[in-house]
Amino acid sequence: MSDDYLATGFPSVDASTCTGVYTQCLDLLDSLPYFKTYKARSDALLDPRAGQTILEVGCGLGEDARRLADLIAPHGRVIGIDRSRRLLAEAQARTSPTTGPAFLQADARALPFAQACVDRCRIDRALQHIAQPQRVIHEMARVLRPGGRLLAYDNDWGTFALSSSLCEATDILQTRWSRAFTNPWIGRDLPRYLLDAGFHDVLVEPSVSLFRDFALADRVYNLSETLARAVRDGAVSPATAEAWRAEQTLLSRTGGFLCSLTAYTVVGTR
Ligand SMILES: C[S@@+](CC[C@H](N)C(=O)[O-])C[C@H]1O[C@@H](n2cnc3c(N)ncnc32)[C@H](O)[C@@H]1O
Q: How far is 52 from 75, CA to CA, in rounded Å?
């Protein structure tokens, strides 16, 4: 069994023997048109301005922090924080030391900043992995200046859907993968969490990612690995797993493969 399961590995990337699994996943996602589109929309909603201080929480490889730094260059400051020293080292290696963002190792539940010191705060697919997500949102509220803006984007794994004639096996696969996340429903919970933390003018935008290729969806959502785990646990028979994979491969070849997920972009003003 691989211990580098994407649904459970992101809370502690540095404990992995193979960080490449996580860097390759993040690079693959960043290359996909859906990701480019929602991140461009997120830049517009965040509305970064020259001279501002922007905090990117759970920054991973720093792609979003670098893009934000470019948007407010030459004036302004972007800081990316992440729990993983290894991802931060890679982020740093990809970043200009003069014009790029600064990176800092920290836990999102205890941000190492004074209150009311940043103008914009952004968190993208990190809350799905962090126990006590409300604590993170309260921390982001604490460090934002009055009138500052928080943008959070995250998945609602309760909407994860695959098309198949093998409904029972599909249901098991969808449920097991979704429930493996620390906070599988975080996307739909974001609006009330922001309101609880004192944000106002809370805006909510859903977006749906759609995969039509089994091999690509398998890399992003660990479909085969999830099914293999279900077989090992006796929840799905080896024959059914084989039939499921054969069906998905055929559907992918003939244009019938469908795998979708709804995520939410939620913006609030401090
Ligand atoms: C799915 S990745 C998303 C990375 C980046 N936001 C992006 O859009 O590519 C989740 C990130 O959250 C980080 N993370 C997980 N738990 C964290 C915590 N408690 N505090 C800070 N970062 C954390 C992981 O190290 C990882 O970089």
A: 8
